[in-house]
Amino acid sequence: MKQADTYIGGVGAFVPRTVSVEKAVAKGWYPAEEVELHNLAGAAVAGDLPAPEMALHAAQSALKRSGRAPADLDLLLYASTWHQGPDGWPPHSYLQRNLVGGDVLATEIRQGCNGMFIALELAAGYLDAAPGRQAALLVSADNYGTPLMDRWRMGPGYIGGDAAAALVLTKETGFARLTSICTVTVPEAEELHRGTEPLFPPGVTVGRRMSFGTRNEQFRQQVMPKGESTAALFKIQRALMEVVERALAETGIEARDLARVAFMNYSEEIVEQRCMAALDLPMSRSTWDYGRTIGHCGASDQVLALDRLLMTGELGPGDHLLMLGTGPGVTVSSAVIQILDTPPWA
Amino acid sequence: MTAYRLIAFIQENLVPDDLDLEVDETTPLLLSGLLDSLRTARLLNFIRKELGVPVPAARLDPENFRDVATIVAMLEELESARSA
Q1: Whole-angstrom distance, CA of residue B74 vs CA of residue A262
Q2: Radius of gyration of chain B (CA)
Q3: From residue A128, how far is each of A55, A168, A169 by CA, in Å?
Q4: Which residue of B38, B61, B71 to mutate against A (max A Cβ within 10 Å)?
Q5: Which residue of A has its CA nearest to B31?
Q6: Which residues does residue A176 pair with via DSSP β-bridges, in sequence order?
Q7: Do A220 and B33 touch (CB under 8 A)?
Q8: What own/partner pairs with CB < 8 Å and gap ≥ 24 does A228-231 have?
Q9: Which residues fall within 8 angstroms of residue A68, CB to CB, at 6 or more apart?
Q10: Which of A65, A163, B34, B74 has the highest CB neighbour count under 10 A?
Q11: What ipTM does the predicted assembly reach?
């Protein structure tokens, strides 16, 4: 969807210390044969620091950088991909209590790894829906260091990283403009992240380990041969190209005009083949060099990349950043951000 | 020639080592599970870079990627539209 007058006032990031792939191999956590295959370097590991605590740090930073007070906010969206705390307890309430207060409409977005894209689209629409609405705080956070999850074998071509990212979306001008945000779903691929697991009782309630790798393999071996999902994986790549074409057209630019592209923190081959080569752009315009060091941080990858590019001076006024991602569903999302000014905190 | 190059690329780069499959013009690419999202991307990148034909998202119909013969037919159509 093309965006008119939707801006970014601040971004924030919280990335804990990283553990190298080298160490993970030595400890027997990461398979040695995957090192050369994927060329990943490490993962951010938060230890026992809860995801909502990381979310609070990133949100405080984004809000401070935006120059806004909590009272300016109209909406808080909290994107999560894994358990945040006690089940049945909403993690955004932690941010309401400790940062933004109770007069802000708040909810959790559980849309997997493109939760931040969904949050952006919902927030942009919410701010537009009534006059006087000014700003929304979007935050995402995950800590995968729990029982039932193995970050080093989370899925094919990626390692799970712990982090939080936050962004303040505003109607008044900010340092960057959100020009387009698009999401499509490939429903035929719904079983890709479900595999052959029963819907009830939910796996975590019976202590079943979580592995997208296993479920993806079940989908290929047992679901696809039945017929109706045959073209599902093909259609995911088509959807990816569709949302890119749409976001670029709505922004009025071509792929070669992109200063940088932030995809998910996946293996070198996946980032190159599925994203950069498909756009006919060199890997030097990707954010993979950074992404490979922190792992795939749930819904945070693209905003962490934006924060990093700003802090290292790799994005400047006039530059366009394409953010691209996929999530279970299978949903595929894109967004284009145009940098207007170098923010004072960068 | 295009069909030959596509068959060679698919055989060498997209057929998994543990799959005993001899690719020809009519091998069903989707039914045999060859075209997952990563391999689809690799095939499209080969078509654009090595065969010189960019395929827009609107033409990414599974019917066009049923086998090498349908891909060649689509590429010829895209080529003639470009040169018209």
Answers
A1: 31
A2: 12
A3: 25, 15, 11
A4: B38
A5: A230
A6: A8, A339
A7: yes
A8: A228/A188, A229/A188, A229/A189, A229/A191, A230/B30, A230/B31, A230/B33, A230/B62, A231/A188, A231/B30, A231/B35, A231/B62
A9: A9, A10, A134, A135, A168, A170
A10: A163
A11: 0.89
Q: How many CB atoms lie within 10 A of CB B20?
A: 6
Looking at residue A269, what DSSP letter applies? Answer: H
Shortest Cα distance from B59 to chain A (angstroms)?
9
What is the predicted pLDDT for the residue at A132?
94
Whether A234 and B57 lie within 8 Å, measured CB to CB: no
Query: Can you give chain B as a three-state secondary structure string?
Result: CHHHHHHHHHHHHHCCCCCCCCCCCCCCCCCCCCCCHHHHHHHHHHHHHCCCCCCCHHHCCHHHHCCHHHHHHHHHHHHHHHHC
Average pLDDT over residues A149-177: 96
Report which DSSP code applies to A192.
Answer: G
Tell me, yes or no, if B52 comes closer than 8 A to chain A by beta carbon.
no
> Measured on CA atoms in the order B19, B25, B31, B35, is the torsion positive or negative?
positive
Structure tokens at A182: 């698009």
What span, in angstroms and rounded, lies between the C-alpha atoms of B32 and B26? 12
For the beta carbon of residue A306, count every other beta carbon within 10 angstroms: 25
Q: What are the pLDDT digits (tens) for A296-342? A: 999 999 999 999 999 999 999 999 999 999 999 999 999 999 999 99
> A224 to chain B: which residues are within 8 Å by CB?
33
Domains of chain B and CATH, by start: 2-15+24-83 (1.10.1200.10)
Element (H, E) at A238: helix A232-251
Output the pTM of the full model: 0.95
Q: What pLDDT score was predicted for residue A253?
A: 98
Please tell me the distance from the alpha carbon of residue A138 to that of residue A117, in angstroms, as a whole number: 10
What single letter denotes the amino acid at residue B69? A
